Amino acid sequence: MPKLFQSVSPLDDTILFDGPESTPKQIERAIATARQSAILWHRTPLSQRIQIARNYAKHLSEHREEIRELITSEVGKLPWDADAEIGAAIGKIDLSVTALHERRGKTVIESGSLARVVRYHPLGVALVLGPFNFPLHLPGGQIVPALLAGNTIVFKPSDQATAVGQWMIDAWRQAGLPDGVMQMVQGGVEVAVHAIDSPLINAVLLTGSRAAGRAIHRQLAGRPDVLLALELGGNNPVVVSDSIPSATVAELVTFSAFVSAGQRCSCARRALFIENSHSEAHIDAVIERTQSLVVGLPGDQTTPQVGPLISALAAKQLRKTYDALLANGCRAVVPWKVNSRRENLVHPAIVDATQCTDAQLSAIGELEWFGPLLVIQRVADFNAAVAAAANTPYGLAATLLGGTTSMFENFVDSVGAGVVNWNRPTTGAAGSLPFGGMGDSGNHRPAGYHAIDFCSDPVASLQSPTETESFATLDPWDVVK
Questions:
Q1: Domain limits for position 31
Q2: pTM of the predicted model as reported, rounded to 2 decimal places
Q3: 228: which of 22, 31, 130, 323 is 20 to 30 A away, CA to CA?
């Protein structure tokens, strides 16, 4: 008997998906179908692939309210947040088309009758492992460029967002994607493990945690033919200088830390305040703004700014991190609080690490968490702030608030992150830019605009098509005469 699982709404425990996990035979069949469809899809004219992708964007636009409600119901996103995700998913189509032409289009350099040509061939079958926090946009950010590049897809959505995943598959088919080009498998970790083991898989594209990325990297040991692209978590710092108003600091720091209930890999986890005549006012403003944030559920009479975590289990795991921070010498400033309405409705919390030892600060930098929990720390000067910001094996996002142009250039060069902003939230990202991390936050394959880069292989050719320049009439050994 197949194993059954459910996707349950974090808002009211409504069952939104109820079905069997994909069996090993079903997984193998899905991958085999994608492999059989690969040649036909590769040979489909690019113009036709682009049109199907644009049909998909049109479908999203026409059914925006429907998918927004489903995202809100299944993963607990506040409606404005879900709608913004849909907007990003729609925008991804034209951005990917532009990136394909700009970064992976066929190039020809001619010199007389000799042509130097670079073509890009699809990888084959790409296994896309999606997250729950952006269940439409993040897997789409890998699926869209992979399809445009001529790959076929096996998609496993998060088991906490399977209903959205199924909706996406149906939307692509209604957009005209041929049968066989995209297959879905469903379930938990065991399903992903079995799919990764398939010898028919040519690429694994993951958005997930450091632990998941490391596990897949180990699983693929000895298989250099399988491309692995990892978009992982972060322990992201905000550095605050004195040349910025406290009210602005409060808005940017709290938005960075608590938007989407802290369930973005780019959310701020640490805020570092350079000690000066304004730093205590900055800290007080952040604390006051945090305490004023409205925590609640979609549909509340007062529109909430912070919604629920994905599950009660996620709240318990976040509480363990909060306790670990206290055990590492932090002091509670805005203490842990859970709303009485639901176990997963967690209020934003702040702890102060200013008095922690160097060893304790290093331990804090090692942690990865997913929720509305912020560590603050006072540091002596800008150099100390940069060193403290970089005191983590992660390297996804970082932000400098205030400062000068030279300070920001120093920050970009020294902080060790793939997304480095100035006077913007850590969560600020543009679809026209790469998005990805260094260190434990990825494996040097940025997504965003550059996702197209890991969806194909370059093939180089030297071409002499004319008879007079054919190999038969040349003396290739002339170079040694």
A1: 4-232+442-461
A2: 0.94
A3: 22
